[in-house]
Amino acid sequence: MKYRKLSTAFIAASLVAVSTASMASGSFGARGGSGIQNPYNYGKIIFHKKINCNGCSLAMDSVDKKSAMNIVDKVKNNATEIQELSHRERKAVAFYLNKRFDI
Fold this sequence. Notes:
Layout lengths: L1 H23 L14 H13 L13 H12 L10 H15 L2
């Protein structure tokens, strides 16, 4: 009987630990939906793959609110550095940066 109580307690504790760890990882919020169709997630992917990557024209070591505002301005004005982005990608990047840096 003691073994059964101990194993039940261990299983319950393990489930709580695993579910807490999975919710804490990453920077995506649970309320906004998930996947690439979410504008925040899509904008984040495009930003890191096409704007702030090694070899990209706007690559930088760290992004702060001021540099994010500068990038959003370039996105809105369709500057030459972001000409390769589609209209959907530009909107998603602007959405991501506005949410991420509270612009």
